[in-house]
Amino acid sequence: MSLPASRFSARGENGFTLVEALVAIALLATLGAIVFGSLLTTTQVVDAGRASASREQTIRRVLRLMAEELAVGVKEPANPWLGMNGTQDGHPADTLAFVTIGDGVGAQAAREGEMIRVIYTREGDRLIRFVRRNLYELTDESIDQVNLATRVQGFNVRYFNGQGKVWLDEWSSTGPLPTALLLEVTFKDPNAEPYTIREWVTVGVS
Question: Cβ atoms within 10 A of the Cβ of 149, count?
Fold first, then answer.
């Protein structure tokens, strides 16, 4: 028995059935979840990229300040330059001690400042700067400590011997200062591969 044509068209004009409405809602919810998840992932990637760029910019600024201190380094027989090659957890953990003029602000400070002894070293995941403002003080009261960077996996320093024309991993001499240095700092973010930032330094007040 066939339904009258008028009855069939009336059913079509009444709109969606309950099942059709539920299916449509489920599809919309799925699409919404996909779009939201995509936006969330994109936002996280952008935020992570910005954070990484900010950290890299910060350490490049730190390395430039280190380079400025080293560039105006001076020879002080009672406090010779000392570069020790070391490791921690299988990664470079060098220590560099030297005498410079001023406080890390370049040649202007060299003309106006006083001599200080600076030590750079890595302790755990930190790059640390120690400063002794009185070269002949025997107590620790004259030593300042600043954490230059965190999440540091490696700190490596190499020294160029201008007389022998060779690069060395250590430096210990009361003679001429190294002609140049190469600073390497390696970082390890929790969700990224380690990356290394380098800074070349020419030693000597211009």
Answer: 20
The SS3 call for residue 192 is coil
Task: Tell me how crowded residue 105 is: count the other CB atoms within 10 A of its CB.
Answer: 14
157 touches 184 (CB < 8 A): yes
pLDDT at 122: 95
* Model pLDDT for residues 34-69, shown as the tens digit of each residue: 877 777 677 766 666 677 677 778 778 888 888 988
Decide: 44 and 78 in contact? Cβ < 8 Å: no
Mean pLDDT check: name the lowest of 7-21, 54-68, 174-188.
7-21
Are the C-beta atoms of 100 and 73 separated by less than 8 Å?
A: yes
The CA R_g of the chain, rounded to the nearest whole Å, is 31
In the chain, beta strands by DSSP E: 73-74, 81-84, 87-88, 91-92, 95-101, 115-123, 126-132, 143-149, 152-161, 166-168, 171-173, 180-187, 195-202
